[in-house]
Amino acid sequence: MMRDSSRNAAIEAAIASCNVIGKTIVEIGTGAGLPAMLFARYGARRVFSCEMDERIADAAREIIRANDLQDRIEVIAKSSRQAILDGDLPSAPDIIFTETLDAGVVGEGYEAIAEDIRQIANPNTVVMPDRVQQFAYLCTDVQAFEKNSVFYQCGFDLSCFNVFAERSYFSVNQMQHDPVCLSPTLLFRSYDYLHPNALDPVEHHVIAHSSGLCHGMTSYFDAHFGNFLVTSRDRKSHWHAAFHPLREPMPVESGRRYLLRGDKTGLIDLVSL
Ligand SMILES: C[S@@+](CC[C@H](N)C(=O)[O-])C[C@H]1O[C@@H](n2cnc3c(N)ncnc32)[C@H](O)[C@@H]1O
User: Which of 133, 143, 206, 227 has the fewest CB atoms inside 10 Å of its own CB, making it the most exposed?
Assistant: First the structure.
């Protein structure tokens, strides 16, 4: 992730463009401290950055000290929830920043982080990213589907273990998969940390443009940091696409209409209309 130069450049450009001089910043998820140090570089008065993994928080503190920014950046080795409960984060900061996105957007704790952001934001607080759009299409992808299940190995039937198979989504390296697209790409969900309804169930009517066996849905996202985009759609990005398997593969016919439903975990189902 930290070597993803387009992601880093977009984050730096977004921070540089929003006049952070003298501002108070809260960051959720310090990582190595890169966004926190960028806020300091562009003039933030104080950055409160929480990191729930203590070893990562220690490493970030060391990096921040080595860059002589310890007077302006405080790393709090706690989850955002705990930091709020303990009163470690300022209420109503000017900016709340988080880059805690996984391939399918929600897997790194989106729901809890969004609740935490709503706890400390006031109407003037700018949230970065302000919106994350997830795009998706139905596909044939035997390889991805089979990656998520086990049958015979060494002559033994292991299929009972499939009760543990991931039902919502997992990441797939598009370089190693060749999904066949069966439908137009649609805007599957728009996420906004400030809107509790962003995780409500979604329903889409989808008309297949090709016939084939549908194994699930492939998705990718665009995260908008003001006018700058951090995206998983670029094959050079460190994020892979997300594959959302159907419970069972389902034949779809070109020109037919289907109802595609999704829940807040990224779990989907598909019904013929
Ligand atoms: C994808 S990394 C991003 C790091 C850094 N913000 C960056 O953009 O380079 C996300 C980090 O957030 C941390 N994290 C995730 N959820 C968190 C939470 N609710 N509170 C604090 N840290 C969290 C993870 O441990 C991980 O180190």
Answer: 227
